[in-house]
Amino acid sequence: MKIDTHVHLLVSKKQTTPDIQAINYMLDIARTSQISALCITEHIESVGYDNLMHALFIDNRLHAEIFPEYILTRQGIKLYPGAELQIANGTNIGVHTSLDSLLQLNHNTGAYTLPELYDALSSHGGWFALVAHHIFWPNKTYPDHDELARYVSAIEVPAKDLDNVEKYLALSQKYGLATTGGSDAHTYIQIGACHSVLSESEYGEQHPLRYAFHNNHQYHYFSDFSKRLVEMSKIYRATIMA
Known about the structure:
Strands 1, 2, 3, 4, 5, 6, 7, 8, 9, 10 and 11 form an eleven-stranded mixed β-sheet that branches. The chain has a single domain, classed as Alpha-Beta Barrel (TIM Barrel). The chain has helices spanning 20-32, 49-57, 99-104, 114-124, 145-151, 165-175, 200-203, 226-241, and strands spanning 2-7, 37-40, 65-66, 71-72, 78-86, 92-97, 128-132, 154-158, 178-182, 194-197, 220-222. The radius of gyration is 16 Å and the shape is globular. The chain has eight helices and eleven strands. The chain is of the alpha/beta class and 242 residues long. The N and C termini lie far apart (36 Å). InterPro entries: Pol/histidinol_Pase-like. This is PHP domain-containing protein. It comes from Xenorhabdus bovienii (Xenorhabdus nematophila subsp. bovienii).
């Protein structure tokens, strides 16, 4: 399974309703890129977050085949609900859990410290996994790596910060954490620029990130074209937001 674990389907945090046609374009590109699954880690602070999650996973506006923990699109791509949260110190954390737990979380920017986020998810019951997103990106760092490692399951190697790959790998190895690959795509151009590679047969109908993380296991993958895709997507996004 080639899974992009960090995907946005809203162009900006101000977009109130999802563009279903644009989402279908993103799925078309994912299929062309042989990406078989996407984690929809939209910014939970976005005004349209709940609208997006309801449109996809409750109202089924993609007309997809629905399963207990994901929906299967008509293109044959699995979509999993998720979120990206900006915690109190500015760091972004990827949250992978059930849709019910995601919708129960406080959607305000900086509403949680990392320990508070962990406790909130624990109180909901059920499984969850936290991933540190672009931890070496300016203004997104987490100063206490010992504390960070106590609460996250993996360190993301992000498409938009490939110059710092060795730092991400060193951090994961120091603390015995897995790595994931995430595109951080906000447009169809960037889908799959970084992604994770998992054994699909191992997880069957379950959410793969429920069981995937093993100490020091590197799931991330990127190519020579990754940086180019990120830059092209940045330019395209600027034009459609102008």
